[in-house]
């Protein structure tokens, strides 16, 4: 009896984009989801332009103002548009940073706000406010330095785990707790006016941002985002395991160091401009992974989900108690709490099924 013919190989549903010597492979579902998320981000951005300040402006009037026509040009282009652009770009930066750290740790809890980077950036800002007494440049620089020092502490204490796994999460939570206590002590020791300003900044807010305040952070984020994009093929190799990655020519320690610098840079830049905005970096990568149906964390869906989440949260923050605009960090904390409850409930159900 003759053997049946072998089944033809199954073609992977992926698309390869080429630009000279550079090529990029992505799944078709990832591309479709990314396109849908991009449309959603544009829609939320338009809604933010219409609802800015709690007052409604018709979409047609907003589009005309963007083109430089009508009576709402100054309101839309100078007051509302910087805030909308900041929400989209900062949300994308937080989503990308969370994707980087969750990929490194292979843990859905491996995000900058969990492992202490936000707290470190806040410490740097408090030092700038209470000790240095400088302006916006000093505040931004101190925030970035604080985030980098926190990352360095977590990096050094986690070297035995090769920057992956449960140890990094535990070390990060411990560093976060110590920095939070230090921040509380600094605020309690500061003058009343300084303490009020520092506490308000710690909530994370897009209120009052203008083009001058967001131009440099956006440029820095755009430059930093190129690094994970260029290293994404090596990141996919590490998802298969350290041994397979090394066998394929990936240099693990330099790769992880570069990714940590990119993730810390994105988080610290957002924190320097808008304060610590919690939980976007935690939730966006996993939501993007579920939508794209990928085994690992995909960078583009994570960044786009972050942009949608932060922009939508800012719209809610503006209209919830209008005309008073809440700090967006208040809304993202609620989103993060709901996400954590869902995540822990899912883990508990999975543990119960495995035990059964």
UniProtKB/TrEMBL annotation:
Identify the InterPro entries for this entry.
Answer: ABC_BtuC-like, ABC_transptr_permease_BtuC
Q: Which CDD domains match?
A: TM_ABC_iron-siderophores_like (cd06550)
Q: Which residues form a coiled coil?
A: none
Q: SUPFAM superfamilies, per this entry?
A: ABC transporter involved in vitamin B12 uptake, BtuC
The membrane spanning regions, by residue number, are 31-51, 84-105, 125-156, 168-188, 214-234, 255-284, 290-312, 319-345
- Compartments in which it is found: Cell membrane
- What Pfam families does the entry give? FecCD
Q: Which UniProt keywords apply?
A: Cell membrane, Membrane, Transmembrane, Transmembrane helix, Transport
The similarity comment for this entry is: Belongs to the binding-protein-dependent transport system permease family. FecCD subfamily.
Q: What is this protein called?
A: Ferric enterobactin transport system permease protein FepG
Origin species, per record, is: Nonomuraea coxensis DSM 45129
């Amino acid at each position: 009896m003759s053997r049946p013919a072998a089944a033809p190989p199954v073609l992977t549903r992926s698309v390869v984009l080429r630009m000279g010597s550079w090529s990029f492979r992505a799944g078709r579902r990832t591309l479709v989801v990314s396109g849908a998320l991009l449309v959603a981000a544009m829609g939320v951005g338009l809604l933010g332009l219409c609802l800015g300040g709690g007052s409604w402006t018709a979409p047609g009037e907003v589009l005309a103002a963007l083109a430089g026509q009508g009576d709402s040009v100054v309101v839309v282009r100078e007051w509302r548009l910087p805030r909308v652009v900041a929400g989209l770009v900062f949300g994308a930066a937080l989503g990308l940073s969370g994707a980087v750290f969750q990929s490194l740790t292979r843990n859905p809890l491996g995000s900058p706000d969990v492992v202490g980077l936000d707290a470190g950036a806040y410490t740097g800002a408090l030092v700038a406010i209470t000790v240095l007494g400088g302006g916006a440049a000093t505040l931004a620089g101190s925030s970035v330095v604080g985030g980098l020092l926190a990352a360095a502490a977590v990096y050094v204490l986690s070297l035995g785990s090769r920057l992956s796994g449960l140890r990094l999460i535990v070390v990060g939570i411990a560093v976060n707790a110590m920095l939070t206590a230090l921040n509380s002590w600094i605020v309690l020791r500061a003058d009343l006016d300084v303490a009020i300003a520092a506490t308000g900044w710690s909530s994370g807010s897009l209120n009052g941002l203008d083009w001058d305040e967001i131009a440099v952070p956006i440029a820095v984020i755009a430059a930093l985002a190129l690094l994970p994009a260029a290293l994404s093929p090596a990141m996919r190799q590490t998802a298969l395991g350290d041994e397979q990655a090394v066998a394929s020519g990936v240099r693990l320690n330099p790769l992880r160091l570069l990714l940590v610098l990119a993730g810390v840079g994105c988080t610290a830049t957002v924190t320097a401009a808008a304060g610590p905005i919690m939980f976007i970096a935690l939730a966006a990568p996993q939501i993007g992974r579920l939508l794209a149906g990928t085994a690992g964390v995909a960078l583009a869906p994570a960044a786009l989900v972050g942009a949608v989440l932060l922009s939508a949260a800012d719209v809610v923050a503006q209209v919830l108690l209008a005309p008073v605009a809440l700090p967006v960090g208040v809304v993202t904390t609620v989103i993060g709490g709901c996400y954590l409850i869902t995540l822990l409930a899912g883990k508990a159900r999975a543990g119960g099924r495995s035990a059964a």
